[in-house]
Known about the structure:
Strand content of chain B: 35-45%
Structural class of chain B: mainly beta
Strand order of the largest sheet of chain B: 8-7-6-9-10
Order of helices and strands of chain A: EHEHEHEHHHEEEHEHEHHHHEE
Oligomer: heterodimer
Distance between the termini of chain A: 22 Å
Largest interface: A-B, 45 and 50 residues
Bound molecules: zinc ion
Strand order of the largest sheet of chain A: 3-2-4-7-1-8-11-10-9
Structural class of chain A: alpha/beta
Helix content of chain A: 25-40%
CATH superfamily of chain A: Thiolase/Chalcone synthase
Largest sheet of chain B: 5 strands, antiparallel
Shape of chain A: globular
Number of helices of chain B: 1
Number of domains of chain B: 1
Number of strands of chain A: 11
CATH architecture of chain A: 3-Layer(aba) Sandwich
CATH topology of chain A: Peroxisomal Thiolase, Chain A, domain 1
Radius of gyration of chain B: 16 Å
Helix content of chain B: under 10%
Distance between the termini of chain B: 43 Å
Amino acid sequence: MGRLTDKYCIVGVGETSYSKNSGKTTRAMGAAAICNAMRDAGLGADQVNGVLSYHGGDSTAGPEIAADLGIRPDFYMDCSGGGSSTEALVGLAIGAIEVGMCETVAIFRSMNGYSEVRIGGTGRRAAAPVAGSQLLSRPYGMVSAGQNFAPVFMRHMMEYGTSSAQVAAVKVAHSKHASNNPKAFYRKRYTVDDVLNSRWICKPLHLLDCCVETDNATALIVTSAERAADLRQRPVYVMGVVGRVTKKRGDTFYNDAPITDVAGKYAAERVFGMAGVGPEDVHVTGSYDAFTFTTLLQLEDYGFCRKGEGGDYVSNGIIELGGKRPNNTSGGHLCEGYTHGMSMVIENVRQLRGQADDSCPGWQDGIHTHGYAEGGCRQVREAEISMNLGWANPVTGSALILRR
Amino acid sequence: MPQVEYRGMLLMVPDNDSEFGGYFEAAREHRLVVKKCAACGLLRFPPGSGCPWCTSLDWTWQEVRGKGTIYSYEIIAHAIQPGFRDFTPYPVIIVELDEQRGVPTPHDGLRLIANLVDDQFQPEAEANVAIGKRVDVVFQDLSPELSLPQFRLTDEPPAGSVWQFPG
Ligand SMILES: [Zn+2]
């Protein structure tokens, strides 16, 4: 496996605001997110010639958005996919550049995830006939991500004694982080009791175990280290990338047992081997927190703690700002907003630059107080290596290790 | 092509559905079937087009008894589909069938999703749902041409220890 270290970088990041009603098309939002990422990088339209996106039939194709920005792609692909696609597309962008198909790639995800097409299969998606393998779950009232994942979470509680209070600590941590993120949709700090007292959605998940649904677009720009040298921002280097890795029975979540093992167990060896580092070397993590529980499962299977000890790991302060290895310093999908994983990659890029956009007056110049009280700083001290843990579902995942 | 409206959804089994056609044909006759590999003889569910163990594309339908154990579950309090709002709270269970448990590896088994229902096909009470409890297949006739496999608790003692969500 060839070392990618030092060869490819993320040089620009950008997004639109998180809302429940954007009042805009996915085309307009996608263009705005890419435009913000290009300005962040200091790139003009003639310097971007690759466009990659992922969607679930709920977005606008790359060439339309490229045209709005004056970009003429030498390479574009609109891939089918949701969570865990960002990391995988960073790898595909590197491959496309390496082979000479293009030089600089904008990757975007644009979705009106609340006002237009919600993930859970309501609205537009509910009208479609139910056939094929959907007949194994939808007629039983099992359709949303939470409903599909809950039996995996339940089994983890049985096998390892994981408690609802431990899992709720993920929401507590991410909400603390979100309170220091002016862009976050929910900036309120929550307690374990707040989570446990919120209404049931599908046991073992409470309302506050579930992420927020938002309208939003996100974008990032990948290019070679050579080109990155002339650009506006300090480049963030890709050390390792894998995705979308699946378990052997990728067709269901309940056949490849133990079902409490997630795809990360296969991705971990590959991505850490590529990067030449291990979990102990990572300073900040970005897990896919569609639910509190997904964070716990990923952290276990990527080796940040032993299998079955995720409940302890997420509830003992390690994942909070000021802790040993903060997770989702933006507030993540639970609090900041939901755009299928890219927002957590963007956050880690900002962390590695020292540019977490918090309330510190000098954040743009990397000047931070590191006071993590409510409404304060969210920059991790001396963050040099970050890792994103992408998740589509228990049997599909991706990972991305970055360094400054 | 069998199709029926159920709880606001149009369920259909297209004539060319080589994965699920035979499964629902059998269900209409109140028989539960899985696929059996013609090469290695292993059973599989879901009834995919090929064998996950030996890659053979040749298979036959094989009837199973429909008895099994609850492997995991959830209790859905908030229905996403409007047609399920009057069904809440309802259990969705993963059933591990008795056939081929722990074969070919200790973690393998024939597992499928269903609701745990009572004699009237209403949701079983949450207090009675637990991992390890024994269940038996029943068929819910949605129309003369489409029946849905569901599961009910049996009087059998549990296979091993029983676990229930404490919350
Ligand atoms: Zn076979």
